[in-house]
Automatic annotation (TrEMBL):
Belongs to the PPR family. P subfamily. InterPro entries: PPR_rpt (IPR002885), TPR-like_helical_dom_sf (IPR011990). The keyword Repeat applies. The keyword Metal-binding does not apply. It holds the Pfam family PPR. This is Pentatricopeptide repeat-containing protein. It comes from Acorus calamus (Sweet flag). PPR repeats lie at residues 27-61. Keywords: Repeat.
Length: 98
């Protein structure tokens, strides 16, 4: 997702949504790339929407996802959400460096 590295989050999101129409379904690497892109761009709401989609698909967040989210939540000053996220990661046994 080169668009994310260039800061073109909307372009990356458009391609992400088009993938299924092309018969390409996102894997954890694709999800984590998108998640990190949203977090780096400061778009925590898009990141959380993506997390919700992942959960609906039965996907578990991994250390990379938790790390990206915790970093973004910390930068956004959302300490209550960050505490919940850390508790969730411990409940499922995922350890990460924030």
């Amino acid at each position: 997702m080169g668009f994310l590295k260039m800061g073109k989050v909307e372009s990356a999101l458009e391609i992400f949504h088009d993938m299924e129409g092309w018969g390409i379904f996102p894997d954890i690497v694709t999800y984590n790339t998108m998640l990190r892109g949203f977090c780096d761009a400061g778009d925590l709401e898009q990141a959380l929407n993506l997390v919700e989609r992942m959960r609906k698909e039965g996907r578990q967040l991994d250390a990379i996802a938790y790390s990206a989210l915790s970093d973004a939540m910390g930068r956004a000053g959302r300490m209550g959400d960050l505490e919940k996220l850390m508790s969730q990661s411990m409940e499922v046994g995922v350890q990460y460096n924030s």
